[in-house]
Amino acid sequence: MTETLLSFAIATAILAISPGPDNIFVLTQSIVNGKKFGLATVFGLISGCLVHTTLLAFGVSAIIKESENLFFSIKLFGAIYLLYLAFKVYKSDASILLSEENVEKKTTLQLFKQGFIMNVLNPKVSIFFLAFFPGFLFSDSISTVIQFYVLGLLFMLVSLVIFSTIAILAGVISEKIKENKNIGLYLKWIQIIVFVLIAVFILI
Questions:
Q1: Could you tell me which of 99, 98, 152, 120 has the C-alpha nearest to residue 44?
Q2: Rg of the chain over CA atoms, in angstroms?
Q3: Whole-angstrom Cα distance, residue 123 to residue 192?
Q4: Is the pTM of this model over 0.85?
Q5: 37: CB partners within 8 A, 6+ apart
Q6: Whose CA is closest to 62, among 131, 145, 139, 140?
Q7: How are the residues of the chain apportioned to helix, strand and coil, as percentages rounded to the nearest 5?
Q8: Which of 14, 32, 115, 177 could form a disulfide with 103 if both were Cys (CB 3.0 to 4.6 A apart)?
Q9: Percent of the chain at pLDDT exceeding 90
Q10: Residue 11: pLDDT band by 50, 70, 90 thresholds?
Q11: What distance in Å separates the CA atoms of residue 42 and residue 16, rounded to the nearest whole number?
Q12: pLDDT in tens, 123-134
């Protein structure tokens, strides 16, 4: 159980650090408007994860009760989807683009709402949760609904810590990105390896 949760937390941390629309958005808001605004965005994004966790917990738990074969099909889909994400990252540009132009000034409440809506209405997050979480169920005796919520809250906690760190250290991080052009390449390959390893972990 501990090893599974630790593996999940490490995978979540690496994926949270890797450049993506969410953490780049947080970084940009913090650089342009200040740390407080970046943190407001972070809390909005993280709050949205609770919606996806709830949908996943009750939806997939019902499927598990109905059919083990169907649940295996979900895990197989998850592994294939994660390998697809690895391929997409492989084909993508390794450079990290920080566009600070035309960043609209908003209140912290507006940024919280925007982060929340960005997350909740993004179908890719639902698909990612469906692909990522089932492979890390850690107990035969604990309710799968509870297990999904434990994974969801752990995902939110780890992401909150990393995204908040990005918001607080925005200036330093942006300077390091500008100074070292290879950072994007390193993170790209780390992300690819993590996606592939998670896919293998889910299948075995």
A1: 120
A2: 17
A3: 21
A4: yes
A5: 29, 30, 106, 108, 111
A6: 145
A7: 80, 0, 20
A8: 32
A9: 48
A10: very high
A11: 12
A12: 889 899 999 999
3: tokens are: 């090893």
* SS3 per-residue string spanning 99-167: CCCCCCCCCHHHHHHHHHHHHHCCHHHHHHHHHHCHHHCCCCCCCHHHHHHHHHHHHHHHHHHHHHHHH
Nearest to 129 by CA among 157, 156, 92: 156
Q: Report the amino acid identity of residue 91.
A: K
Question: What angle, 0 to 180 degrees and rounded to 10, lies between the N-to-C axes of helices 123-132 and 35-66?
Answer: 60
Q: Which amino acid makes up residue 123?
A: P
The two counts, helices (H) then strands (E), for the chain are 9, 0
CA distances from 17 to 5, 88, 138, 166 (A): 18, 17, 24, 9
185 Cβ neighbours under 8 A, 6+ residues apart: 94
Span 128-151, mean pLDDT? 91
Average pLDDT, the chain: 88
Residue 172 DSSP SS3: helix
Q: Of 154, 192, 164, 188, which is closest to residue 10 (Cα–Cα)?
A: 154
